[in-house]
Design brief:
mainly alpha; 11 helices; Helix Hairpins; Four Helix Bundle (Hemerythrin (Met), subunit A); 2 domains
Length: 292
């Protein structure tokens, strides 16, 4: 039995097909994880991996048949295409390094789950604003590093001896991981050194990094709203088509009624049919002169 293109498109866009591919992707992730242990199960895992790759190839072929050139209009489909092509290249000889890229097949779970695609799309949408905030963060860290090296470099060289060491120290402080150890080392020679660390942590961790989070959250809200807007537009289009079809049906019924009225000798544009009361004389009412 040969499936028509419309049938193939209906199949690949169905929920059961998406759920099946999600299960296959999860099985592939489990196989790749199990393969790291080696052992006697390794040959069976190789067979399972080849079956999974075969399923991915069939899925890709079906989508190309269903969507044709439209398949490459979606960036996620480009990612799937790249992953499948990497999977079918023999991982031997000069291509042995590509064997490491098998792990990319696990990332296909992102393309299989719409909610994950929304999150990744929101991250890409937030790149311009997030880049500005990260640039501000780098300026603050670089300025603090120069200031910290000049203040504490001579007394605490193990943490502030040069610019590179100071940048690493301040990055660690920004994560709030073991920052009291650095502060205590500085406090031995600089009792007021804690002010530097407190101010740095407040500016970088509590203000600038929260700005990054705010930019990402805003972009995610915009991404969700754009998806809802697209769904609303589709719903409105369907409702508009239904209303227009109903209006066309009503117009056809009115036209049919007009023809029926004309067929029976009536005038549909008049208040009453033509000829109503024809042949019946209507005498005007004569005013009474009072004579009996």
């Amino acid at each position: 039995m040969v499936l028509r293109r419309s049938q193939v498109a209906q199949m690949v866009e169905s929920r059961w097909f998406s759920n099946t591919m999600l299960v296959v992707i999860l099985i592939n992730a489990a196989v790749l994880g199990w393969a790291t242990y080696g052992g006697s199960a390794q040959p069976y895992l190789v067979v399972a991996e080849r079956i999974v790759v075969g399923v991915f190839v069939v899925e890709l072929a079906l989508k190309l048949i269903a969507w044709r050139g439209g398949f490459f209009r979606d960036p996620w489909n480009w990612f799937d295409f790249f992953v499948v092509v990497i999977s079918v290249i023999p991982a031997t000889g000069p291509f042995s390094v590509l064997r490491i890229l098998r792990v990319l097949r696990i990332l296909r779970v992102i393309t299989a789950v719409p909610q994950m695609r929304t999150i990744i799309s929101a991250l890409f949408r937030s790149m311009p604003g997030m880049g500005t905030v990260i640039g501000l963060l780098l300026v603050v860290v670089y300025t603090a590093a120069i200031l910290g090296q000049q203040l504490f470099g001579d007394d605490v060289p193990q943490y502030f001896g040069d610019l590179g060491t100071t940048l690493y120290t301040l990055f660690t402080v920004m994560t709030t991981e073991n920052w009291p150890d650095f502060a205590d080392a500085v406090a031995e020679d600089h009792p007021l050194g804690w002010m530097f660390f407190v101010g740095y942590i407040v500016v970088t961790t509590f203000i600038v990094l929260n700005l990054v989070i705010g930019v990402i959250v805003t972009a995610m809200e915009q991404e969700v709203e754009s998806g809802l807007w697209a769904e609303d537009q589709k719903l409105e289009a369907v409702q508009h088509e239904a209303v227009m079809a109903k209006l066309a049906e009503l117009s056809e019924q009115v036209a049919r009624l007009d023809r029926m009225v004309r067929d029976h000798g009536g005038d549909p544009d008049a208040g009453e049919p033509v000829g109503q009361g024809a042949g019946v004389a209507h005498d005007p009412v004569q005013p009474s002169n009072g004579s009996g």
